[in-house]
Amino acid sequence: MLGDLFAALRTSQSGLIANQRALSTVAQNIANVNTPGYSRKEPTLEQRVVDGNGAGVDLTQLKRTVDEGLLKTIRLETASLQEASVRQDYLGRVQTLFGSPESDTSLAHTITEFQDSLESLALEPNSALNQRAVVRSADDLAIRFRELTGALQSLRQEADQEIGTAVREVNDLLTTIADLNDKITRNGYAGQDTSSLQDQRDQSLDQLAGLMDIRVFRRASGEAVVFTASGRTLVDGTANGLSHGIANQLSAGASATGGGVDGIYIGEATAENDISGEIRAGRLAGLIGLRDTTLPDLAANLDTLAGGLAQTVNQIHNRGLAFPGLDAVTGSRTFADPANQAITFQGTSDTRLVVFDGNGNQVGTTTMRTLLGGATGTIADVQTSLDAWLRGQGHGTASLDADGRLEIELADGRTIGFRDEAQVNTPGAAAADAAIGFDSDGDTAVDESHTGFAAFFGLNDLFAADVALGSAGSAESLSVRADLLSAPEGLSRGTVQWDPTRSLTGAYLVSSGDGSGARALATAVGEGTAFAASGELPQVTTGFADYAGMVIAHTASETAASESATARQEELVETLKQKSDSLRGVNLDQELADLMLYEQAYSAAARVMSVMQEMFDALERSAP
């Protein structure tokens, strides 16, 4: 009898304890009804059995109401959302930087202003106001190129800094996840509740998924093993941290493959541990794509445009001259081995050199084929033969400076002009571009072709750049020739003209009112030009201003696409989260119903305990 009473007492006590814990769980759920990341806990009651007989009730581990498959989907879509979001942010800033094609500050508008100034100069070539306007608009154009490219490089630098910040956040999260894994495993083996720790770990995994695409595997012990999408281990017992060296400055030519940009390494910083190319989603993926592809492609578009414009303008500017000619010139092209590097005039092309007096009248003339004694000669041959002719005629000198650049200086108020012609040694022959083949390594094989003698040497460029025009960084370093900025009257406005009526055989001259050079410049800037494929823009033939408009339109299209992708992903992620929250979130009606149920069960168990106490008291009173 007494044993049965003790068994009943222990059974009712287990009911009190189990329902008390269940009530505590309900209270915890209600308290966290608005807590982000909290998953509703369900108390699981289990019959206690001793020697095959019922012995009350136990409250086992609390059950989290989560759908792991749904959480996995949310993390995958969150990674895509964060990637699209960071692209939207940066591209929106680029679009603001580039402006719209019709904007007064857009690159297309600046090119059009340059063309308009050239057309005005062609109408009044002697106007100092028009000359200054051309130089000013050319300088504005170069400044705009430098500003845009510099801004793109600054955005690349910012993206690289954000990558460094994201890597630190990843490492902090990996350490947190590894620490929570350890606590969950230890508490689980000790029979303690781990549901709250699992909630914390899920929140860290959610944050990690926003930074990079991950995969999670759960062991029976409760430990979560984290991998990259490509299978690299991030957390397995311990955290395998990432590393990335932030660049102090990114040049236009800096790239992940070419150098200047550090990788993202897992473990030791070696090439095989670089996972930069393996990160396919998340904020890191967006930043890497911007830094290594999107922004460099836009910079390449600017380099293509700046290089094509400067090359076209320089070629025609070299073909012309200011009145009454050029009194001193220094080429922009350098030659490392002028004694072996050679040029060859192709076909019947030739270049006539004409020396003028202060009034633009011819005082001496010859051709390069005549000086070279044929169609071919080394760079040194060009310099020595030209110097011998100038000195012999008392016109001036020609030399090569320390960098191998051709220098020509005229004496006694004389000037020089260059006229590319289609026929050999024929005064007054129709002007045409001289086709020049260049042997750059001394093996007599033509490996480059150029148009125009003065343009080949860069004797009268308008634009200058620190690197080869059209190559990486040319837009970033584009500038107007320094002496033209201070003396706009040096602009090429006319060309060397042939007058068959002068003297008995005709003569060359430079006219102060000749605007043919300026007209040729305006026409070249406005007409179609062949652009090679650059970045994401295809090969195309169009005007310079139109190409600038294509760059702007492409940027606007990419921005719109990223905005649309971000909006879609936001809607998808929000829908998935609502579905997950409906399952894992706290329903107050349900909790209140459970509260009443556990309260009643607790009261009943307490009543049983009270009855047991009364029975024990009765036994004690009846004892002898």
Describe the structure.
The protein is 50% helix and 16% strand. The chain is an alpha+beta fold. It has 3 domains: 2-65 and 585-622, no CATH class; 69-102 and 151-298 and 555-572, no CATH class; 121-149 and 300-548, no CATH class. The protein has a 4-stranded antiparallel beta sheet. A 4-stranded antiparallel beta sheet has the order 15-12-19-20. The longest helix has 62 residues, at 128-189. It is rod-shaped.
Tell me the layout of helices and strands:
Elements: H1 2-31, E1 41-42, E2 45-50, E3 53-59, E4 63-64, H2 68-98, H3 107-123, H4 128-189, H5 195-211, E5 214-218, E6 224-228, E7 233-236, E8 238-239, E9 242-243, E10 265-266, H6 283-319, E11 328-330, E12 342-345, E13 350-356, E14 362-367, H7 368-372, E15 376-378, H8 379-393, E16 396-400, E17 406-410, E18 415-421, E19 435-439, E20 448-451, H9 453-457, E21 463-464, H10 474-477, E22 479-480, H11 482-486, E23 497-499, E24 507-509, H12 516-526, E25 529-531, E26 540-542, H13 544-584, H14 588-622
Antiparallel strand pairs: 1-4, 2-3, 5-6, 6-7, 7-8, 9-10, 11-17, 12-15, 12-19, 13-14, 13-18, 16-17, 19-20, 21-22, 23-24, 25-26
Helix pairs in contact: 1-14, 2-4, 2-5, 2-6, 2-13, 3-4, 3-12, 3-13, 4-5, 4-6, 6-12, 6-13
